[in-house]
Amino acid sequence: MKLPKRHDDAEARREQALTPMIDLVFLLLTFWICASVGRVSEQVLATELSGTAIELAAPTDEPPPPLGELWVRLDRAGNLTTVTVNDRTYPGLEALEEAFQGLAAADAAGELPVILDVGGAVPAGDVVRVYDAARAAGFEQVSFAADAPQAGN
């Protein structure tokens, strides 16, 4: 009986290890060809650049106030709740409800966000009444203002 040589066995293992690598190279080549077929060729567009320097405005520390917000401030003075909307004071909650209805008639209710800034002594019933009046007038974005947290607290 003839024993196989170890040299032949090592050569067979080398050929077997090379076959998957060749398959992988062909797969990558096929993928690259398929991916590059639908690619749009890029072209250089001629542009004229001015030789002058562009001056940038210095950034401000405070952002500009957002346009189109209704800030409703509720404070307590004695037994009455005072209402201020964008620096305009209303004598009572009934007048505020009428103002909300007027804005709703002007089709501004769906676009403007209402921000309620409530003082600490204002009764919860008044806050709910103002919130309900804004929602009933058609304002979709009614939110509450919050103080920024103090550093170190």
UniProtKB/TrEMBL annotation:
<comment type="similarity">
    <text>Belongs to the ExbD/TolR family.</text>
</comment>
<keyword id="KW-0812">Transmembrane</keyword>
<dbReference type="InterPro" id="IPR003400">
    <property type="entry name" value="ExbD"/>
</dbReference>
<keyword id="KW-0472">Membrane</keyword>
<keyword id="KW-0653">Protein transport</keyword>
<dbReference type="GO" id="GO:0022857">
    <property type="term" value="F:transmembrane transporter activity"/>
</dbReference>
<keyword id="KW-1003">Cell membrane</keyword>
<keyword id="KW-0813">Transport</keyword>
<dbReference type="Pfam" id="PF02472">
    <property type="entry name" value="ExbD"/>
</dbReference>
<dbReference type="GO" id="GO:0005886">
    <property type="term" value="C:plasma membrane"/>
</dbReference>
<dbReference type="GO" id="GO:0015031">
    <property type="term" value="P:protein transport"/>
</dbReference>
<keyword id="KW-1133">Transmembrane helix</keyword>
<protein>
    <submittedName>
        <fullName>Biopolymer transport protein ExbD/TolR</fullName>
    </submittedName>
</protein>
